[in-house]
TrEMBL record:
This is CAAX prenyl protease 2/Lysostaphin resistance protein A-like domain-containing protein. Residues 143-241 form the CAAX prenyl protease 2/Lysostaphin resistance protein A-like domain. The keyword Transmembrane applies. One of its GO terms (biological process) is CAAX-box protein maturation. InterPro entries: Rce1/LyrA-like_dom. Signal peptide: none annotated. It comes from Flavobacterium defluvii. It holds the Pfam family Rce1-like. Keywords: Membrane, Transmembrane, Transmembrane helix.
Amino acid sequence: MFLEQGVKPENHFWKYLLGSVFIITASFIGQIPFSIAVLYKSYKEKAVFPTDSDLALKMFEPNLTLFLVMLSFLFAFAGIYFVIKYMHNQTLLSVTTARKKVDWNRIFFSFMLWTIFSIISFLVLYFQSPEKFVWNFKLIPFIILVVVGTIFIPVQTSTEEYVFRGYLMQGFANLARNRWFPLMMTSLIFGSMHILNPEVTKMGYIIMVYYIGTGLFLGVITLMDDGMELALGFHAANNLVGALLVTSDWTVFQTHSIFKDMSEPSAGADVILPVVIVYPILLFIFSKKYNWTNWKEKLTGRIVDTKEENEVTDFLNLN
């Protein structure tokens, strides 16, 4: 099964801590081109080097900013691959799925399902309050956004999924030898990683319910489906459609999207609604399509590594 593929006697938890440091370091190296670009522009324009990340992100044309920021995820993904292969002696596939090969149909189904839902949800909001949105479409910048976003945003979302639903989930499984602890820890850490986002400053900490709830949802579908395919598709659709469809002045990235949200952000039912209603509906759809059963065992059960299981079997056979 998926978690068991990483549960080995030699996979001590300290290796995951060291591996995480290596991945973070690789990500920082990937940020060097952006830092150099900021330094060069500050020098050229005789401006003060920005110490605030929000100011730095607004120094360049949005498509260029997106490209420069996304480079760090390429380096981080390379770090993930190196750590998995050389520190843990595993294949990338073993941290992706319990299946013999990646199920691309699952990725595409999850991607399309969430894309359709996201577009419909936006249209409902738009027709309810059209005054909150302005037409932001510019053909050439939008085409560039589509190209850059289609290439790099899935790299970003996949990197995050490999870190949280793959690498760290198997790491915490090695530590706790159960399923609920990896699920809860990765969800909490995933949500906490968003705490510095401008959205949190604007809406308050209540939005952390959405971030942590989303991490929990992605963890549940990974454990129930014995692989990350559904999480990979969902996460890619969520970020890519968001970048292409609507932007605002208070989000992490400003893009050349089709629409711009001019409303003042506030945390309301839209923060809680996905967690308590939308995600359970998606879980129902996935469970029916992929015949999920034995929820309690898959989400909270104990984990026994293959070597230990074989030793127990041999002992019982001898007696």
